[in-house]
Structure prediction request, 999 residues.
Amino acid sequence: MKTAKSVRNSGDWRQQILKIVNLRPEEGERTFLMFACYTLTSIGLLWLEQCTIALFLEHFGAEGLPVIYVASALMGSGLGIIYSWLQNNFPLKQVFIVIALLMALPLVLFRVGLELGNGSGIIVMGVVFTLRLWMDAEEVLNDLNSQVAANQLFNIREIKRAYPIVSSGLLLGDVLSGFSLPVLLLLIGLKNVILAAAVMILLGGSVLLYLSNRYKQAFPDTPVRELDELQSNYASKRTGGTLRRYIIPLFAFFVLGELLFLLVEFQYLGELERVYPNTDEIAGFLGLFSGILGICELATQWFVSSRAVERLGVFVAAMFLPVSLSILGFFTILLDVTNLGGFDFDGAQILFVGVIVLKFFDELLRYTLIAGIEPFLFQPLPAEIRSDIQTQVQGIAEPLSTGLTGLGILSAVWICGKVFAYLPEESARVAQGGIFVGAIVLFSIVWATSALFLRQSYVSLLVQSAEHGRLGFGSVDLNAFKRAIIDSLDQETADEDKRSCIQLLERIDVANAGEILAPRLVKLSPDLQYLSMKVMLAAPKVEYLGHVQRLIECKPSLDVLASALRYIWLAQPELETHTLKPYLNERVDPMVRGTAAGLILRRGTADDRKEATATLEQMLTSNREKERVIGVQALQEADEQSDLSQFYIPMLLQDESARVRCALLEAIAAKRLTDYYPSLLKGLYYRSTRDAAKQSLVKLGDEAIALLSSVAEDIHKPDFIRQQAWSALAEIGSPTAITMLIQHLLTSWGTARRNLLRILLKIPGDHGIEMVLEQIGRSGVETLIEQELLLLDQVLAADLDLPADGITGREADLLRSSLKGMQADITDRCFLIMKLLYPFNAIQAAILNLDSDSEVSIALGLEILDNTVDLPQKQILLRVLERRPTRDRLNDLNDLMPYEPLEAGDRLRRLLELRHFLSDWTLACCFHLAREQRWAVSRESTLVGLRHPSSFVRESVLAYLKAASPRTCLELLPVLKNDPDPLVAAQVDRLKIELNYGT
Prediction:
């Protein structure tokens, strides 16, 4: 007992840790192993970086860095091509091994090369130069390895939670490597630290290799292919004008960021070289600086970054670094020139301290705030082109900017050498440093400006993406979004565009919509005025009454006037009713008259309410449909126990006008008239009132869950009505409602499960998907697929044991045809389940290709799945989806359930034992075949079949009983007494006559 308790406590402790870092149980191990891999490799790379920089500065000085920048640009692009070639020609496991060895083994050769010539000479200089160049290559290879592995291990939803934890391994590596490097320098010396770095890189590669074997389903044994071309038939890659206007500043933002990084690094290392002539001193300073910086980065990443982005917005966070660099650089130059601080420092000391501060803030903000918002900048791009653009920006534009910056620095150093040739060397270097700090200030201002231009296109693209349903609002800058809406409403744009903006505003911030809409009411078209008033009525506020009053003075359309009157009344609880009484006159339009009557009923005096009641009674009994509709809408303001509600609602439920009945259903929901809730459910059965009934139930929120569940759980209700009930639950969208859907999903089969999956997948913002994963986890989703594959095994076994050459006849053909249909249904449900874990575009592209008759397209579909899916049953699923003979597909499923041949009659009885998982038509075909072949069926299966909700199943059971056992048929006929289906009832009556029932 003690051991069990300790295990349980240990599990609780782990659950708490995972909850703190926002991970789910099934993600914990993968994330920890990736974090360990990233940390170990980062420690090795950072040791290598500090030692390599020290050696490079000793032999070449900071002036040699621009040449490295130019060369590394070419090397970075080349390594990307090599890595892509390896992926396309070798399995990922082999690629990881090759890359780990390629990163570690050359370091041994570099260490040997440093001993040649006793640390001096052309050979050593060549080794140091190549080592500095290879250091950049190591970073490129490590980034590629880490990102590819993470993308394979985590799906698109998991990586949002897991990758911030994984990436913090670099920051932890900063701390550990920084404080351990001085110790290593004392113990083994600078050159031997390179060997220690190689060991750490190999350890990180070993963890990655273990990961690829531990989660082998995530790493296919076949080479990885680029999927963009495979999915081109499904996803369009056209870029509109707004998209192009966004991509240009996006490139500029990343290029300028890389340019600033290189300028700061060049000046920083140049100052270190000037101040610390000894190589070990440089390496020791770099280590301590890296360690202190790493602690600050970790604290900022874990406790500040996400909160700063959330409160300040994406673009304030994006501009924080360039603005900081420009301010710090400006004050460095100012203090250097004027010594305004009054300190006893010369210009060289001020420049050194200023550059160190610049480097500190550049790294601190670049690897926390900037690194955190970079993924968001690609979010507005359509999913089908996002990865392409990201590759072009970060894989091509950034390396090229590195090379161009290197050339620019070389040119600037040459020019400064000519201009300051008359100065002493120390003074010339200080003057050159001031020039470069000035360049940092200039380019920082340009970088911040590019962020402003990026923001303008960003928000426009966000609006377009949201209009097309491609974007949720959980991860965007809402302040920027609202500013884009203001710009659109103020410009001369089409009404449809403005309508979209108002609807988006209603979705993102309905409580404060009046702040934007109220000042613009008079300038909008009548349709937009009505829509704006409808949005503002959700949260009436006194401060906007002046704008609404000016709208009334402009004599708007009647529906706008009615909404404006309602707004004024609701925003001013102390408003006297005499201001509304003139609108009760019969000559006033029904829209305005009904609104005034409803408002008076809510807060008027007793006499005023009597007059308003009389007005409403006239409208409710009017011969004109419009007046009755408006009267019913105004009835929402009446007291639930009033005579109006008690007397007129039952009568209006029978009104000949569908519009009146729909308005009444909305009033029942708005007033929470519980006595009439059954009428809302009844409205689902009629096409004319279905939409109104469904929306009314949705407005009830959680109060309607029990009502809808009673319909959804009743298997005797039509499938379409049950689907409407499930759909309404999804539109309610509360955690309780979605939980109810998930419970139904776990216990349903066939058509019901398919409908539930489609409904959950369509819930906006992926809330349905997230709650499924939260409640049943990834393992639960994998279990759903396994269940479908087990059912497929039984269906294939039946198809094999009921061969066409052995079991003939129409009934046998119908059963085999229904089994084929079930196979297709199972495949469809598997794809729907996979959409809970993987990108829609990839799964849909696979579906379209697999549905083709072309062998090439089928192969492409399987290839997409092979590179997208990482299920434990992936290989089984892929083999089953190939169009191969039934026997081969059954053999593929042997790992799940071995195939045992059965006689035809036994196989049919086995199918009937699985009746809860069969489609209704397949079940009916089983009974028809049993009747034709004179096969015995168990009494239990027969009794269940007689109570089946589908009439054609009951009819097939009766036909079977009549042929197989007339006596039993006579005994069971009372079960179908008063059957609701007229065909079945007629069949029962006919059987009574044929079998002399009751005689």
Q: What stands out?
A: DSSP finds 42 helices and no strands in the chain.
